[in-house]
Design a protein that fits this description.
Length: 211
């Protein structure tokens, strides 16, 4: 079993808070912690009108990504903090530029977020590294997953998949635990569970079903 704790964007752009999360999670017995690597200039623009109204703190989505950014040196600090605490450092990239930074950091594998499952520009960049991929299935149809799986198999990339419902928190009727067996049978790869239930018993149930 491999347990990943999601820090994501919960650090609010604070290096100190991110380090505190890592140190706290190291005491819980998880195997890895995962961040999201967003780079404002590579993902967003002030000229995107649909992203102008965002929050009271950030005037635009671009401003939000900018506030959430860490420098490469700060990412190095976070990775070193993980390793000091016997945790694997993981980060989901959302641009080719982020992949380049993660390669410089020396990550062991890549986690593909739900919204990037069919982002083949990004997937090709990651596949070129030859490293294993953890693929989230949230927001994807079987047809979309089939397309990505075919691509990864052609590229001879080792991958696993997570049953994921993109809802925070996820209501019990939407956990999709029954989908774990469907994914296992359809793709014949290791299947995990991306849990947004805030309920420990959900992961126990997923494990019982083969995650």
């Amino acid at each position: 079993m491999f347990i990943i704790a999601e820090i994501g964007q919960a650090h609010e752009g604070s290096l100190g808070l991110a380090i505190s999360y890592i140190e706290a999670l190291a005491k819980t017995g998880v195997d890895a912690v995962k961040f999201q690597m967003h780079i404002a200039e590579a993902e967003s623009s002030l000229q995107e009108p649909f992203r102008v109204k965002f929050s009271k703190q950030d005037a635009t989505r671009f401003d939000y990504w900018k506030r959430m950014e860490f420098t490469f040196e700060q990412w190095q600090i976070l990775k070193e903090c993980c390793e000091t605490n016997n945790l694997e450092f993981l980060a989901s990239p959302f641009s080719n530029l982020a992949v380049g930074q993660l390669e410089k950091l020396g990550v062991k594998r890549y986690k593909i977020g739900s919204g990037e499952v069919n982002n083949f520009l990004l997937l090709k960049k990651i596949a070129a590294t030859g490293k294993p991929i953890i693929l989230s299935s949230g927001m994807s149809s079987f047809a979309e997953l089939d397309e990505t799986v075919d691509f990864l198999k052609k590229e001879k990339i080792e991958f696993s998949m997570l049953q994921c419902t993109t809802s925070y928190p996820t209501a019990p009727e939407n956990y999709g635990l029954n989908v774990i067996s469907e994914l296992k049978e359809r793709y014949r790869v290791p299947i995990g569970f991306s849990d947004h239930s805030a309920n420990p018993s959900t992961c126990i149930a997923a494990t019982t079903l083969g995650a």
